[in-house]
Specification:
6-stranded antiparallel β-sheet; alpha+beta; glycosyltransferase; glycosyltransferase activity; 6hp_glycosidase-like_sf; carbohydrate binding; Cellobiose phosphorylase
Length: 916
């Protein structure tokens, strides 16, 4: 099947016959909190949170099964009826009509041609980028024939008007609360109460469907009762109101009418109208969630007219285009460049939707997960840096003093939840992500002072890495010391506690205990003896970075203030050393720390010399790296080698095996390569083993693991999934992209680009992927992309393209230019470029490669700004420009309206000494 085609560099695309693919959906949202999904046939849902759904909640299976869709019905003079979204029984039984989706950055258009009549319907939908929580729709009916057409149009939006919890529980009872009022513009649903058996409350929220003709005329009638609309024996694909004028006359509602106690919908009907040959009519509808009826009326006045609609649509396009211009690229492959616009949008969508509220994410109830939050910030640092500093600081308030953290971050600053499902557990990887994000922040900004900002700690009944329950809390989630004061610590102390707690929390094989799971949430059945060797490598790298940053700032910051109890975990510094090869001794030291501050720390602070603290942390990191290299490297009979990634709940090593039945995980390799645990020879052998055992062209590259052919109840639920799906052996984009990032970081750029390109090719191969532009969470065994839009892999893909492939990144605030672009990526172009933020300045880096050199053959020979040539030094083959020089030549800007500062970078042969 022919897929979509990009029709504009900003990412606009066209997809013919989109209605012939199941599972397609498109996001419609704004920053005010409206979150919707729309399918080619008007399906999907819309909401502002878990408890306020405008349309009935829709999981992905509902997209092709439900009749609850947005549509516009047309009744002709001869009594025949037609749906502009193909929703009628007759249309579904007949040959498919010509149908096309056109879409761009958060606007969506469908075009459908009547199979037998010269009538074309065009539906344009978007969400204004202001404070309105509503979607706006323009229906255009166009007569393409030589004779007039008389049509009676009716626009329909199904209404739900309550919490998603009511979809099954109390569906009928909550419908009894419905109160619908008809106004001159449409339908207003305001249930009398918010149903909650823990305590019902008066409802003030209004769900509205309103409309007007393009000439300003109002609806001639409305329908707001689902049962009356469809009639006895009818349904939403053959509603009696549309097919029977007599029935419509009997149930039509007028302004002032009220309907109570039934399932609602919003249907607005207009006068019959004649469309002249070659002419068209337009109808405008608004569907949204409002705090009061006046807000709905004002929004309808503003948007349901040609001028208001066009102005809002133009502003919407300009808004999203400008936001995505802040990080974009131009290469010799224009398809890749346009596709990257959608990948760049995805971290923003995660900020808006969280991990919930799109059809594949039907497990979500709102809020953002801890891991997701920190990884999304990676991309936002490159795109929206002005707000990230405060967000990072606020989110650290979710760290407990035992080194664990709340797992759900609410919509308000400082709002944290221990666990969405109220299960006492810890994900062992959570402590790793904040440091990785803050490292990027400091490298991109040079703001090392951020490490010494003060923040509170999170407290709840969970303590000792979920091994203990505290008796009570004070009714809030703040931690208090033993004198009653609120406990505060530096950002550095928060990060330090997370790494130290993990370092000592080891299993019998001296890797960090798996607990509830690590990044792979499917490894959730090895909480007793399971170990994550994979993330032990990342924690080793994190400890090394903490040591390094202390050495970096030691001239200005000679001492670090820490709570006294932490000295127990700084055993080398404190002179109470623990044998790092003795897991029991490490666990005992951690338990001693937990005992000492179970009722809160004492409040006593100590100043620790930065260089001495760095030495303690480096000793820990070195011990971990030495252990991993010497104890967890697997040599297989076929000559390959890789790292073991896990131990199961029986304490058995998970990976290994012979040539015929290898057991290998990609995760087990990524962090050892990325964090520098693997030596150079090991990196090459890992790549060879991954190519042999995990690579699969059909699914877009590296699978997450080989087929273990075992249920493995001693490891996790993922082994109950069919192989090739989700966390059991799918090409799981997130880890594959992190592997690409690691490969670039270790100088294996060809392998890194091969990985990124395979994902791009798989996602773009619509005949298999069946998805709109972007990167999915994973590809199934048939190559279908599942869970699009809301995936952390987008942040890592964007980060890898900008900081590794284009090589534009920071190092403690200095600009590093270290391109690893393949010669072919220039194509026929004279130059390639990337836009990104650095030090709160928007830069466009333009690389010229006049000799067509490949990676390894070229290096930076000159960097030129409008003000002249910039000096740089070479460090490990990369050009490094002092951050102060960037401040002098680039304008400080945090908004997308400012044009970027252009740096023109010449690439020449490595033996050319010019420009240094």
């Amino acid at each position: 099947m022919k897929g979509y085609s990009f029709v504009h560099p900003r990412g606009d695309f066209v997809l013919p016959h989109a209605d012939r693919t199941n599972g397609l959906y498109f996001p419609l949202a704004n920053e005010a909190g409206y979150m919707a999904a729309i399918t080619p046939t008007g399906g999907g849902d819309a909401k502002i949170d878990q408890n306020h759904f405008l349309l009935p909640p829709a999981a992905v299976v509902d997209l092709h099964n439900t009749r609850f869709t947005r549509t516009i019905w047309v009744r002709f003079d001869d009594g025949s009826c037609w749906s502009a979204t193909g929703s009628s029984h007759e249309q579904k039984a007949a040959e498919p009509e010509l149908h096309t989706v056109e879409a761009g950055l958060l606007w969506h258009k469908t075009i459908r041609k009547h199979a037998a009549r010269p009538l074309t319907a065009e539906i344009v939908s978007f969400v204004p980028n202001d404070e309105v929580t509503a979607e706006v729709v323009r229906f255009t009916l166009r007569n393409t024939g030589a004779s007039p057409l008389r049509v009676l149009p009716t626009a329909v939006v199904p209404l739900f008007g309550r919490s998603a919890d009511s979809l099954r529980d109390h569906r009928h009872v909550t419908a009894l609360l419905n109160r619908v009022e008809i106004t001159s513009q449409g339908v207003l649903l305001q249930p009398s109460m918010s149903f909650d058996e823990r305590g019902h409350s008066v409802n003030t929220t209004v769900y509205a469907v309103m409309g007007r003709r393009g000439d300003g005329s109002l609806p001639t009638g409305c329908f707001a009762d689902l049962d009356s609309f469809i009639g006895e024996g009818g349904d939403l694909e053959r509603p009696a109101v549309i097919y029977s004028p007599e029935h419509a006359d009997a149930v039509r509602l007028s302004p002032g009418d009220v309907v109570e106690g039934s399932e609602a919908l919003g249907a607005v009907q207009f006068d019959q109208v004649e469309i002249a040959p070659g002419a068209e009519i337009q109808l405008y509808c608004l569907a949204g969630v409002f705090a009061h009826t006046d807000g709905a009326a004002r929004a309808a006045e503003r948007y349901c007219n040609p001028a208001g609609f066009e102005a809002a649509l133009a502003a919407n396009r300009e808004f999203w285009d400008a936001k995505l211009n802040t990080v974009s690229c131009t290469t010799g492959n224009s398809e890749f460049d346009a596709w990257m616009r959608w990948v760049s949008l995805q971290p923003i969508l995660r900020r808006l939707y969280g991990c919930s509220f799109l059809p594949y994410h039907d497990y979500g109830r709102g809020g953002r997960g801890w891991r997701d939050l920190w990884q999304d910030c990676l991309a936002l640092l490159l795109m929206e840096p002005d707000s990230v500093r405060e967000s990072l600081l606020q989110n650290l308030a979710g760290v407990r003093f035992d080194g664990t953290n709340a797992t759900i971050i609410g919509s308000r600053p400082g709002e944290f939840v221990a666990d969405r499902n109220n299960i006492t557990r810890v994900w062992m990887d959570h402590g790793a992500w904040p440091l990785m994000t803050i490292q990027l922040y400091i490298d991109q900004t040079g703001d090392s002072g951020f490490l010494f900002e003060s923040q509170t700690y999170f407290s709840d009944p969970q303590w000792g890495r979920a091994s203990r329950k505290l008796d009570a809390t004070r009714g809030d989630t703040l931690l208090y010391d033993q004198t009653g004061g609120v406990v505060r610590g530096s950002v550095f102390e928060h990060l330090l506690l997370q790494q130290l707690s993990a370092f000592f929390h080891v299993g019998d094989h001296n890797s960090i205990l798996l607990e509830g799971a690590d990044w792979n949430d499917g490894l959730d059945m090895a909480a007793d003896r399971g170990e994550s060797v994979a993330f032990t490598g990342q924690y080793a790298a994190n400890l090394a970075w903490l040591a390094g940053v202390l050495e970096q700032v030691s001239a200005e910051v000679t001492e670090i203030a820490l709570h006294h109890e932490i000295l127990q975990l700084l055993d080398r510094y404190a002179g109470t050393p623990v044998d790092y090869d003795d897991p029991a001794a490490k666990r005992a030291r951690l338990q001693s720390f937990f005992d000492s501050c179970q009722q809160g720390p004492s409040g006593e602070m100590v100043n620790v010399a930065a260089v001495d603290l760095a030495a303690d942390l480096r000793a820990k990191s070195d011990a971990m790296i030495d252990h991993l290299r010497n104890r967890e490297w697997i040599q297989t009979p076929d000559g390959h080698g890789w790292f073991n990634g896990y131990y199961d709940n029986d304490g058995e090593r998970v990976e290994g095996g012979g040539t015929d039945s290898p057991r290998m995980t990609l995760t087990g390799q990524v962090f050892q390569v990325l964090g520098g645990v693997a030596d150079e020879q090991q990196v090459d052998r890992i790549v060879a083993a991954a190519d042999a055992h995990l690579w699969d062209d059909a699914v877009g590259g590296y699978r997450l693991n080989t087929d273990f052919r075992e249920l493995k109840l001693n490891m996790g639920r993922c082994f109950g999934f069919a192989y090739g799906h989700k966390e059991n052996g799918a090409m799981f984009s997130h880890m594959a992209v992190m592997f690409a990032n690691a490969l670039y970081a270790r100088g294996r750029s060809q392998a890194g680009w091969r990985t990124l390109e395979a994902i791009f090719n798989a996602a773009s191969r619509f005949s298999a992927s069946r998805m709109y532009p972007g990167i999915p969470e994973y590809f199934d065994p048939k190559g279908r992309g599942l869970y699009p839009y809301l995936t952390g892999s987008a942040s890592w893909y964007l980060l890898t393209v900008v900081t590794r492939m284009f090589g534009v990144r920071g190092h403690y605030g200095d600009l590093v230019l270290d391109p690893q672009l393949q010669a072919a990526q220039w194509g026929e172009l004279d130059s390639v470029s990337v836009c990104t933020y650095f030090r709160q300045r928007q830069l466009q880096i333009v690389y010229r490669n006049p000799e067509g050199l490949d990676v390894g053959e070229y290096r930076v020979t000159a960097v030129v700004a409008d003000t002249g040539e910039l000096a740089f030094t070479l460090r490990d083959g990369a050009a490094v420009i002092d951050g102060a020089a960037i401040d002098r030549v680039a304008m400080d800007c945090t908004g997308p309206e400012q044009a970027p500062t252009v740096l023109r970078v010449e690439l020449g042969r490595r033996d050319n000494g010019a420009g240094v």
